[in-house]
Design brief:
The structure holds two protein chains of two kinds.
Chain A: H1 8-30, H2 38-58, H3 61-85, E1 87-89, E2 92-97, E3 102-103, H4 105-122, H5 126-130, H6 136-150, H7 155-172, H8 176-189, H9 199-209, H10 220-230, H11 243-246, H12 258-291, H13 295-319, H14 337-358
Antiparallel strand pairs in A: 1-2, 2-3
Helix pairs in contact in A: 1-2, 1-12, 2-14, 3-4, 4-6, 4-7, 4-13, 4-14, 6-7, 7-13, 10-12, 12-13, 12-14, 13-14
Chain B: H1 2-9, H2 12-40, H3 42-53, E1 54-59, E2 66-67, E3 73-86, H4 90-103, H5 108-119, E4 124-128, H6 133-142, E5 149-159, H7 162-169, H8 187-191, H9 193-197, E6 201-207, E7 213-220, E8 228-229, H10 234-244, E9 250-256, E10 262-268, H11 273-277, H12 282-289, H13 312-322, E11 331-333, E12 336-339, E13 342-345, E14 353-355, H14 357-363, H15 366-387, H16 409-416, H17 422-429, H18 439-451, H19 475-491, H20 495-498, E15 505-511, E16 535-542, E17 549-555, H21 561-578
Parallel strand pairs in B: 2-8
Antiparallel strand pairs in B: 1-6, 2-3, 3-4, 3-5, 6-7, 9-10, 9-17, 11-14, 12-13, 15-16, 16-17
Classes of the chains: A mainly alpha, B alpha+beta.
């Protein structure tokens, strides 16, 4: 195991470069080879994110431990501000306009939740972990921001926050039996959540269950996405040859539906390659956790892996029609700054924790 | 031990394994789904994808012209201008519409139709068909400011002599959306539709999600339809039409005996096929349909009438062929024939005295034919009538031909369940009663007798090569009938109008439309209601011994054939002989 990744950080770097290269190809194809506009900004973001990743890697790892709670509080306040006076885009308040940069606090919250929970659990002793009482605080720490995000309304991100929180709680050593019972009861209570959904969210869920009911209306996106992916066949239509994306049949083709564009042009082979790349990165995160000594870095690496994989799964599952469309970007590939920053920081953190191990 | 077990289960390493197994499971789930989508159902989705982006638009060919034998185009195409807008986004669309409103009339109904088509992702939207010159010139001034808007030429059917030719040429289906190919509905337009239509071309274009054309994939040019020439002479047709137009309703057929080609075929009143083939208002349609004279009907081939005295030719032919009578035989006409307590009157109450076959035809003596019919019986009459073309199609190419009615014993039994009565044979012998025939059938009967060929049939197509099998008719009886018909026009019923130097042979006919009472015999037809007057017939040919032209005239409720139909035929013959 130890020799599986000979040069620890380098392997992640290579994987990341591969993904970012695919990301570039995807965005290039969507832009139709036009450098101006989206593609240019995307390249700038890739470069900036890599620099940011370097910074995180060089930073003192202990700082993250020290400032975890502070970051959480900061993100929480931002979420409340968004709730009160956010910028409305596409019928949802998700962004804060900082004049030079539109900040999405829910994105920041993803990292803050992980750091906070991880810090909380790293301080807990093994017998304390087995007690149910000690898990009450983390549960609330997860639920509060999730509710705020849900109110924006952003069902997808709220689910991701809860998923990540639950993942870390589970990893920390939450009693298995109770966990299983809680999971089952949540599953049963799920239908009652229906009453808290917005109309457009209800529509999406309904469309998900009956996509063919209204092929030109709400089911249009799912259908067009499936057509694009399906018509890719084994090897795809070829780079820049995807008709569904070129002729604008795909919705949000450079953000949430970037996977569709790639699947159309590179086929089954391309899509499976992307899934494998993400699986390997997650495996790398878990491997890094295993390598770490401190409980903090162990939990942190695992938590980041869960966060990353949740995004990947929900995004791909929704574009191929096995989950409702909830607006989750595909890490590294989707166009969008906030998400890119979150995941490059994650990679930086994992590398940083490995580096710290060596010293 | 217990603690150890718990410790192991709660260790991060163990939990990591669980989580990663779950991730692998979810990953495999995704890959399986992708496999079904991209490999299992790939073909279906490729098809759907192509259906999304590829549109096939038809390019309509120009319909072939219909030309008369004297070279006049009676059904051609005229160019009209059509305003078409390419699919575009909302902003361009609104700008276009606002600019267009300045030069053409667009009411809110039209606007909503256009908006609807745009929503439906139509690649091309027809904004207005048939632009006027004023609109066209206004448009060309601002065309450069409009985006994706073009004026296209379309060809619409144009009938140059609509009223004269409506029944012969017919009309095409109303072209509502300009996407379907118009097809011929009646007349020559229908029977030669295959030749006239041509081949539709197509344009395969790639469109984007709003339906806007991105590029042309392939295109195939249309093949224009072929021109066809019909046997009708436009000048003669016009001449005949003008003659009939003086009556209330009627029909006329002029044939070339040598090859059966129809030189003129008019049914009056007519209608304007230009209206039916283009935009027609409900009121215009109603005025055609509700006209009591039924202008849509082709009276020459589509309507049948009792043939009247013209049928006497058939009786004479049958009797002569069977050898029952000879030219020497004379029958005494006292003005009536008695059958079972009932007297059948001759049209001439005073009787014609002793008449032979020539006199009988010449004077159209009813009694002579009553006696002959009594001798030969209905079965023989039906046999010969059928051979001369009654009760069957004449072979003219027009659709919806009426075959008339040739009553027989079998027909009577099937229709009324009773047996044939002898008095019915008497009535049939003078072309009254249940017998019905079209004007064309009467004309063909004359044609058969004068060509001596049972296979004589009329045609509308110029130079149509028919594989004519000659079925000769017994020569002697034809000669006798020809002589009889010649006498009709020299000293008989038609002598007043048809006694001419070049020699016309023919037969007049006046067929009753109702049973007349004994008090009404010989009453002046002009004093009767129009609907109760006799139909006036004349069929004949000229010139002389070996005639070239055959004319059949029918004036509906015209009165006496000799007084009304024969003069019309005479004028037509005069016109034909001058040629």
């Amino acid at each position: 195991m130890k020799h599986f990744f000979p040069n620890e950080s380098k392997i992640l770097f290579i994987l990341l470069f591969l993904l970012l290269f695919i990301s570039f190809l995807g965005q290039y194809s969507v832009a139709g080879g036009q450098l101006e506009g989206h593609l240019q900004r995307h390249i700038v973001r890739i470069v900036l994110s890599i620099i940011l990743m370097g910074c995180v890697y060089r930073m003192d790892f202990r700082l993250w431990n020290n400032y975890a709670y502070l970051l959480y509080i900061f993100a929480f306040i931002l979420l409340i501000i968004v709730d009160l006076l956010g910028v409305t885009k596409l019928g949802a308040q998700r962004w804060i306009d900082l004049y030079f940069f539109i900040l999405q606090p829910s994105e920041l919250m993803k990292l803050a939740i992980i750091l906070t929970l991880v810090r909380y659990y790293s301080l807990l002793s093994a017998p304390e972990v087995l007690k149910l009482k000690s898990h009450i605080l983390p549960i609330f720490l997860t639920l509060f921001p999730a509710v705020l995000v849900f109110r924006q309304p952003d069902l997808g991100t709220a689910c991701i926050l809860i998923g990540t929180g639950v993942g870390i709680i589970f990893l920390s050593g939450f009693p298995l039996k109770i966990f299983a019972t809680a999971l089952v009861s949540c599953f049963i209570l799920c239908p009652f959540g229906w009453f808290f959904l917005h109309d457009y969210q209800k529509n999406r869920v309904l469309t998900f269950f009956y996509p063919d009911k209204d092929p030109l209306g709400a089911g249009y996106h799912i259908l067009q996405s499936k057509i694009a992916i399906g018509s890719g066949h084994i090897w795809g239509r070829g780079f820049l040859q995807g008709t569904q994306s070129k002729l604008n049949f795909l919705p949000e083709k450079n953000t949430d539906f970037i996977f569709t564009t790639i699947a159309e042009e590179f086929g089954f082979v391309g899509s499976v390659l992307i899934i494998f790349l993400f699986l390997i990165i997650c495996y790398y995160f878990f491997w890094a956790a295993n390598e770490s000594r401190s409980r903090f870095s162990k939990l942190l690496c695992c938590g980041l892996g869960v966060l990353l994989y949740l995004h990947v799964f929900v995004n791909i599952a929704m574009v191929i029609g096995i989950l409702p469309i909830v607006g989750i970007p595909l890490p590294f590939l989707s166009y969008g700054g906030s998400s890119m920053i979150t995941f490059t920081i994650s990679c930086g953190l994992v590398m940083s924790s490995l580096k710290q191990q060596k010293h | 031990m217990m603690f150890d077990k718990n410790n192991l289960r709660s260790s991060i390493k163990f939990r990591t394994k669980i989580i990663f197994s779950l991730m692998l499971f979810l990953g495999i789930l995704l890959i399986l789904n992708l496999y079904w989508l991209q490999i299992g159902d790939a073909e279906k989705y490729v098809l759907l994808s192509n259906k999304n982006r590829i549109r096939i638009l038809p390019i309509l060919p120009k319909r072939g012209r219909i030309i008369t034998s004297d070279g006049k185009t009676i059904a051609g195409n005229i160019c009209r201008y059509k305003l078409v807008m390419e699919q575009c986004n909302e902003q361009v669309f609104l700008k276009n519409i606002n600019l267009l409103k300045q030069c053409i009339n667009l009411d809110s109904k039209e606007e909503s139709r256009i908006a609807k088509l745009r929503k439906k992702r139509a690649s091309f939207i027809v904004i207005k068909e048939d632009l006027s010159w004023e609109e066209y010139s206004k448009l060309s001034m601002i065309l450069f400011r409009l985006n994706g808007i073009s004026v296209e030429n379309i060809y619409v059917r144009d009938y140059s002599m609509p009223m004269e030719f409506c029944h012969v040429v017919g009309h095409i289906s109303k072209n509502t959306d300009n996407m379907r190919i118009p097809s011929g509905k009646t007349g020559v337009e229908a029977i030669l539709d295959d030749q006239l239509t041509g081949k539709v071309g197509n344009l395969q274009i790639e469109v984007n999600s709003i339906g806007k054309k991105v590029r042309i994939i392939t295109s195939q040019a249309p093949v224009d339809g072929n021109d066809v020439t019909i046997s009708i002479d436009s000048q003669l047709q016009k001449f005949v039409y003008d003659l009939l137009a003086q009556e209330k309703a009627g029909a006329c057929v002029v044939l070339d005996i040598s090859n059966g080609e129809v030189l003129a075929m008019v049914s009056f009143p007519g209608f304007d096929p230009n209206l039916i083939s283009h935009q027609m208002t409900q009121a215009q349609w109603q005025s055609i349909v509700n006209n009591p004279l039924f202008p849509l009907m082709n009276r020459a081939v589509g309507c049948s009438y009792p043939p009247g005295s013209i049928f006497k030719i058939v009786i004479a032919f049958a009797a002569l062929s069977e050898g029952i009578i000879s030219p020497k035989d004379k029958i005494f006409c006292s003005g009536g024939v008695k059958l079972e307590d009932h007297v059948f009157h001759c049209w001439n109450r005073w009787g014609h005295g002793n008449v032979n076959i020539f006199d009988a035809l010449r004077l159209s003596c009813d009694c002579y034919f009553f006696e002959v019919a009594k001798k030969i019986g209905i079965d023989t009459i039906v046999k010969y009538a059928k051979e001369l073309g009654f009760g069957t199609e004449t072979g003219i190419e027009l659709p919806n031909e009426n075959i008339g009615l040739l009553p027989s014993r079998k027909w009577k039994f099937l229709r009324y369940g009773t047996s044939w009565k002898p008095y019915e044979t008497m009535i049939i012998s003078i072309g009254q009663g249940s017998i019905l025939a079209t004007l064309m059938q009467s004309a063909v009967m004359i044609g058969k007798i004068y060509t001596g060929n049972y296979d004589f049939s009329p045609t509308l197509i110029k130079g149509k090569k028919k594989n004519k099998t000659q079925i000769p008719i017994k020569n002697e009886c034809v000669k006798i009938i020809k002589e009889g018909l010649f006498q009709v026009c020299t000293s008989g019923t038609a002598a007043n109008s048809c006694h001419v130097a070049y020699g016309i042979s023919g037969k007049t006919g006046s067929s009753q439309v109702k049973k007349i009472k004994s008090t009404e015999v010989g009453i002046d037809q002009k004093r009767l209601l129009w609907e109760l007057r006799d139909h006036a017939f004349f069929v004949g040919c000229a010139p002389g011994e070996n005639p070239r032209y055959l004319v059949a005239v029918m004036v509906e409720h015209g009165g006496s054939g000799a007084a009304v139909a024969a003069p019309i035929a005479r004028k037509i013959f005069d016109k034909l002989m001058k040629k």
